[in-house]
């Protein structure tokens, strides 16, 4: 097993100090090589975060596009199949597919030009199946790349 710590990239959609949603490309880097349950072989494990959570799977139909909205709570979004996009208020549009990770934390945006939060929808000719891991408690002051 290689001894080099892994790096796991993710997109972080957050609200800046001016109330505008923005994306930042981040990477989880805090990993420790240890067994999940001895005698199992060691594997790289990331930091654990303790908070009540809700886990769900959503299916966005082909051609689905939501309206501008904020994430209801901070949440990890992991595409399982299909492709989807998210567009921030600053105009940045990120397209994601299976294996890519996004953390949505754009609560507290202000209304600007009819936009608040983000716009999202499916891409291509297949539904987007997403796993959502939603935190029960929002943070007071979100910090971009807080899982690095």
Give a written overview of the molecule:
The radius of gyration is 16 Å and the shape is globular. It has strands at residues 8-15, 21-28, 31-34, 43-46, 53-60, 75-81, 83-88, 93-96, 102-105, 118-123, 128-135. The protein has no helices and eleven strands. The strands form three sheets. A six-stranded mixed β-sheet has the order 2-1-9-6-11-5, with no helix packed on it. It has a three-stranded antiparallel β-sheet with strand order 8-7-10, with no helix packed on it. Strands 3-4 form a two-stranded antiparallel sheet. The model has no long low-confidence stretch (mean pLDDT 91). The two termini are 23 Å apart.
Based on helices, strands and strand pairing, what is the structural class? mainly beta
Oligomeric nature of the chains: single chain
For the report, how would you describe the main beta sheet? 6 strands, mixed
Overall pLDDT score: 91
Structure annotation, total helices: 0
The CATH architecture: Sandwich
What is the string of SSEs from the N terminus onward?
EEEEEEEEEEE
The CATH top-level class label: Mainly Beta
CATH topology, what is it called?
Jelly Rolls
- Shape annotation: globular
Q: Domain count, please report it.
A: 1
Read across the widest sheet, the strand sequence of neighbours is 2-1-9-6-11-5
The residue ranges in which pLDDT falls below 50 over 5 or more consecutive positions are: none
**Beta-strand percentage?**
over 45%
Q: Name the CATH homologous superfamily.
A: Jelly Rolls
Evaluate the radius of gyration: 16 Å
Q: Helicity, in percent?
A: under 10%
Q: How far is the first residue's CA from the last residue's CA?
A: 23 Å
